[in-house]
Amino acid sequence: MNIDFIERKFEEIYRELEREVLDVLKDESLDKKQTNLRVKPLSSTKKILQNALDSIKMVEKISKEDLKR
Length: 69
Prior knowledge:
69 residues; mainly alpha; 88% helix; elongated
């Protein structure tokens, strides 16, 4: 498994999510509640992706340890 490739792809997604969050924050037509409702799913998505990446790394590490045995 190519962890570096996966990390690069996740970083691209993170940048896109951050761009979307900034767009929402810059939208002055939204009140605080609307802003929060639009930002929350984006931040949740980023956290889910971070957890997924951590899981992938853990599986890779365990797999390498098993191969050494």
